């Protein structure tokens, strides 16, 4: 057996062969032992290719890449794979190409093909989108049975003297009319959380002052903020709550809104 336990090659996409420009789109790892499986890993989307070479038809590109991978596997499954693959690589003149085989030591084929891919190809990690704070709050209200008691997407409040528009996800009446908005603080550092709190405090203060002259309490408006603090320390929540409270705005944690839910339920007949 050779001193090397495997060989690898890089799969490349070259849409304009005459320009000698190519982008790495995958790697293949061929164990020296013919009983072991050839490992291939390629990009799962055409975004990087499109960024380099312009518009492509992604489905067509991925189908062609998959077909090329099958050809590569076939060549590397041959007993005299080194000579066969070298001949295969030299004859490639279309959009997909392979680099000459290079030897390397491996202890784990699956882990090694991932390491090679990350190092030689790379692909942006597609982060799973977290549910928006408003959607999360809506599910909580629904599960607690108070969603039908709320106005969803209440009318935007315009404060012309400040050139300010205040939007909220929900609203309900409990004497004053309460605008409820949801905010995601999970991906922000403490400084940004405090900045957001300051902006919400200002909105709440201006909203309250604008309607303070109304004789009927039902015509007055207040702001309630429900925030998802994630793993932020409780002290940060307390600091933000104090900032908002000073300007007449209430703050609830997304995971501790029983008091708000109870108030909504208690005022179900107030319209």
The tally of helices reads 8
| Mean pLDDT across all amino acids | 85
Give the overall silhouette: elongated
Structural class: alpha+beta
Uncertain spans = none
Count of DSSP strands:
12
Major β-sheet annotation? 5 strands, antiparallel
CATH C-level label of the largest domain: Alpha Beta
Order of helices and strands: EEEHHHEEHHEEEEEHEHEH
Give Rg in angstroms: 30 Å
Secondary-structure arrangement, i.e. CATH architecture of the largest domain = 3-Layer(aba) Sandwich
Strand content: 15-25%
Termini Cα gap: 84 Å
Chain oligomer state? single chain
Number of separate domains: 2
Kindly state the percentage of residues in helix.
25-40%
What would the CATH topology of the largest domain be? Trna Endonuclease, Chain: A, domain 1
Give the SSE layout.
Layout: E1 6-13, E2 23-31, E3 39-42, H1 47-53, H2 58-76, H3 81-91, E4 96-98, E5 102-104, H4 109-120, H5 133-143, E6 151-152, E7 157-159, E8 164-166, E9 170-174, E10 176-184, H6 190-211, E11 221-228, H7 234-245, E12 250-253, H8 258-266
Parallel strand pairs: 10-11, 11-12
Antiparallel strand pairs: 1-2, 1-4, 1-5, 2-3, 6-9, 7-8, 9-10
